[in-house]
Amino acid sequence: MVRNEGRRRELADAGLAVLARDGARGLTHRAVDTEAGVPAGTTSNYFRSRQALIGGLFTRIGERLAPDPDVHAGLAARPPSRELFADYVRDIVTRLTAERDVTLALFELRLEAARRPELRETVGEWLRAGFAGDVEFNRSAGLPGGPAEIALFHYAIDGLLLDRLTTSIDAGTPTDEVVDRLVDGLLPTVVTPR
């Protein structure tokens, strides 16, 4: 049977909406069918198991959170600097907050991986691959900071996103200002990439 890739993406988007709204325990084939408005059994035709569904969700998360090539072309045209690094971080935070359901779904998958060993490796591999890609991007772009600094930014951005997408401790401070403070605090003036 030939799979309709558009339908596959629609089902994955419905799965992300279910995760964001109901959490990982609410993620079932039937719930995705209902969310997508498709006949019962459709999701299981595209994703045979829960593990396959979760794999499809990770693929879709990557697609939906991918950088805009035009934005990145403009950033890449600038010389490397702390300010450029801050603008890349700002772009990441903007994409993650604009795709609220996708980011909340990703947090849900991470929480579920803490409870379910069979999911832990899938989530861990996906996160580590993303981190390695970020470190390599930073190095190849000539931006300040090495793996240790990139890890610190991951930790800080995760906390910032959790704050901005749930209940904030300081909603009055603009997100761009928080990003600037993170860069100032976590990225020394001169950092040699490691």
UniProtKB/TrEMBL annotation:
Domain HTH tetR-type, by residue range, is: 5-65
Return the InterPro entries for the record. Homeodomain-like_sf, HTH_TetR, TetR_C_31
**Which Pfam families does the annotation name?**
TetR_C_31
Give the record's keywords alphabetically. Answer: DNA-binding
Q: Which residues bind DNA?
A: 28-47
Q: What is this protein called?
A: TetR family transcriptional regulator
Q: Record the organism.
A: Pseudonocardia humida
User: Which lineage do the record's taxonomy fields give for this organism?
Assistant: Bacteria, Bacillati, Actinomycetota, Actinomycetes, Pseudonocardiales
